[in-house]
């Protein structure tokens, strides 16, 4: 199963990446995906608490079960206005 | 409730937006809010501009969720909102909001609520550009 | 704090007022409030206009007292206010207020306070004109 | 001692008058002036509680001691905006 991952704002600097694809196991949750990413990107791990996570255009909790083709977006607190 | 949302890399044309205002005879209050880029992000550093980045598809969806909620809470006739992305120079507005309501209480309350919520959930980020 | 107060029997020229806006680089929030004449004063009677009467010399003095207090309470850079007198047709603004402040909290709070206080102490009266 | 009195809004209809002069005694207060006016204009008396009273361009309490030439303004609750 594959999901797309997008990083926004300074998360792009932390990962050196704007967009990537990741293969995950059936039934994996956002929490499990994040754990993998945190191992790969330690600076992202430091932001765990304040990090916002969306799938598609909606915010999702960490126990959200990922589906094939999901577009996951990770970003720091928003600052519009 | 009429709703209009624009995200743009162009300067906000306030005069044109004013000319586009439409309101029924039952409305008694109009509020405009402008968020303007300040030259001082903090006391110690001068900036010349802010670069705004947006996750546009999600911005639009999140604003629509906020507009839905606004419509439930207050008898608003119309809300229009423009947010700039890209480089916005100091002293230029990055955000323009218009709310039209029967009375001022509803107009003020809903406009403040919308901006507070925007700053909580709408995926837009700032990057200060040193002066 | 810059202050500008106008009482006029002419329609409020919003576009001209917008062009006259001046703000320093330290300001991040601008609010405009428009009070507009509604076609329904109460649910049961239609009106075509409101005739505003003012005790002008006292209006000016009372606004200045309010501006003094505003200046003490909030770090406002500028307040401009226009109030119409005479006949104001339904759907036309009778009141225009602009407040410029460093942050939106101060802009919203002070603008609401100013209008609330105006409705308490500034000697202007309405007479609905039946439709 | 003479004071000028101005009526605004529907107080003009209640008194049939926009402006008038009144002779009062030295040391008279606003309350004493109002008492005289209420005798003359009963419809005004009915508004006593909500009536606003200014001398010159400032609101004054009922125990304000009038001075020669004072401009007293009487009006109903204000309704700007």
Please, could you describe this protein's structure?
The complex is a heterotetramer, with two copies of chain A (81 residues) and two copies of chain B (131 residues). Chain A is α+β, with helices and mostly antiparallel strands and 81 residues long. Helix content of chain A is 25%, strand content 27%. In chain A, strand 3 and strand 4 form a beta hairpin. The longest helix of chain A is centred in the middle third of the chain and has 11 residues. With 131 residues, chain B is α+β, with helices and mostly antiparallel strands. The longest helix of chain B is centred in the middle third of the chain and has 18 residues. Chains in contact: A-B, B-C, C-D. At the B-C interface, helix 1, strand 2 and helix 3 of B face helix 1, strand 2 and helix 3 of C.
Keywords summarizing the entry:
heterotetramer; A: 81 residues; alpha+beta; B: 131 residues; four-stranded antiparallel sheet; 3 helices; 8 strands; 32% helix
């Amino acid at each position: 199963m594959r999901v797309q991952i997008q990083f926004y704002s300074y998360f792009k600097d932390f990962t050196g990446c704007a967009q990537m694809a990741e293969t995950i196991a059936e039934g994996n949750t956002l929490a499990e995906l994040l754990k993998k990413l945190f191992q790969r990107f330690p600076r992202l791990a430091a932001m765990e608490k304040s990090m916002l996570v969306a799938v598609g255009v909606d915010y999702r909790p960490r126990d959200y079960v990922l589906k094939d083709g999901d577009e996951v977006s990770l970003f720091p607190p928003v600052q519009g206005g | 409730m009429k709703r209009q949302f624009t995200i743009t890399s162009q300067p906000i044309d306030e005069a044109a937006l004013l000319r586009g205002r439409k309101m029924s005879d039952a409305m008694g209050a109009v509020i405009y809010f402008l968020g303007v880029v300040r030259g001082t992000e903090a006391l110690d550093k001068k900036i010349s501009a802010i670069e705004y980045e947006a996750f546009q598809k999600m911005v639009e969806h999140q604003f629509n969720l906020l507009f839905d909620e606004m419509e439930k809470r207050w008898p608003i006739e119309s809300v229009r909102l423009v947010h700039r992305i890209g480089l916005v120079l100091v002293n230029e507005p990055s955000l323009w909001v218009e709310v039209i309501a029967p009375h001022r209480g509803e107009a003020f309350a809903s406009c403040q609520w919308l901006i507070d919520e925007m700053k909580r959930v709408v995926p837009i980020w700032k990057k200060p550009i040193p002066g």
